[in-house]
Design goal:
Layout: H1 3-15, E1 20-23, H2 32-44, E2 48-53, H3 61-74, E3 78-83, H4 93-106, E4 109-116, H5 123-131, E5 136-140, E6 169-170, E7 175-177, E8 193-196, H6 202-211, H7 213-220, H8 223-229, H9 234-237, H10 242-250, H11 253-263
Parallel strand pairs: 1-2, 2-3, 3-4, 4-5
Antiparallel strand pairs: 6-7, 7-8
Helix pairs in contact: 1-2, 3-4, 8-10
The structure holds iron/sulfur cluster.
Protein name: Radical SAM superfamily enzyme, MoaA/NifB/PqqE/SkfB family
Organism: Desulfopila aestuarii DSM 18488
């Protein structure tokens, strides 16, 4: 995507009421000069900005500080530093440390997104963050895209609502999805695909997201409640991770058809 086009989209998003943007996957720092321009534009438009990065650019404390000070000058609000035993196969964990420390010096908000499958293989990775007093949050690995092939243990979660905020996600080819991350991997039904900015305006795509009763049920009732309505046994529901349960419900054409009809009435009345 060209810089001018990205700028136009951001202006259109601001006009549509978007108050924050996260620049994310692949690696936004590859286009660092463009990124600075976009952050500056968002800042002028009073939009909150976050960049998600793997810190490959923070090879030394000096390089890290140079980048972070530029971002601060252009108005960045927050850096989110991806970190995991998979990320760190390609990027030294010292880079993450350099980036986080540079944020502290520059006065930019940051946190380390510690992607984990909660196995004891991750203990030393977590300890590294604790030893260096870094702000971090564990993020469950989402088994979609490249992570689809990762081995995984069976789980038993709590019986929780699993409501989902569903932040829209715009890809470089201008396709917009109603939810971030896993939503672009529903290959059978493309349930979360809203359309393309090549054919429709941002307002039209947002309206599709906000007027879809089933999306609203995900936001308000939660995926667990929808699964219960759909007939999933409680003891099965607790064996799914959130996005996997979502896929069970919405990447099957038959189930999706049934739920779309129910979302117009019956599902809205479903309480426990
Ligand atoms: S739970 Fe469903 S809606 Fe939420 S992020 Fe996962 S796939 Fe998207």
């Amino acid at each position: 995507m060209e810089l001018a086009q990205a700028q136009e989209i951001i202006i259109e998003m601001a006009a549509a009421g978007v108050s924050g943007i996260s620049f994310t996957a692949g690696e936004p720092f590859i286009y660092f000069q463009d990124l600075l321009e976009l952050v500056a534009l968002c800042s002028r438009l009073k939009m909150y900005t976050r960049i998600v990065t793997n810190s490959y650019w923070a090879k030394s404390p000096e390089q890290a500080l140079e980048h972070v000070l530029s971002l601060k000058q252009f108005g960045l609000c927050q850096l989110r530093l991806s970190y995991s035993r998979w990320h760190q196969q390609h990027v030294s964990r010292e880079n993450v440390l350099n980036a986080a420390r540079a944020c502290k010096v520059a006065g930019i908000s940051y946190f380390v997104s510690f992607v984990t499958d909660f196995s004891n293989e991750d203990d030393s990775y977590e300890q590294f963050l604790r030893d260096n007093i870094l702000m971090f949050f564990p993020e469950p690995v989402i088994y979609a895209g490249r992570a689809e092939s990762f081995g995984r243990d069976a789980i038993f979660t709590d019986y929780q609502d699993n409501r989902c905020a569903m932040n829209p996600y715009l890809t470089p080819d201008l396709t917009m999805y109603a939810c971030c991350d896993a939503g672009s991997h529903f290959k059978t039904t493309d349930f979360f695909k809203l359309g393309s900015l090549k054919n429709e305006s941002i307002k039209q795509l947002f309206e599709k997201s906000e007027s879809c009763q089933l999306f609203n049920a995900i936001r308000s009732l939660g995926i667990t409640t929808i699964a219960s309505f759909a007939g999933f046994k409680a003891r099965d529901i607790v064996t799914y991770r959130k996005c996997e349960l979502c896929r069970q419900l919405f990447d099957s054409p038959e189930m999706l058809k049934k739920l779309k009809i129910a979302a117009e009435g019956e599902l809205q009345q479903w309480t426990r």
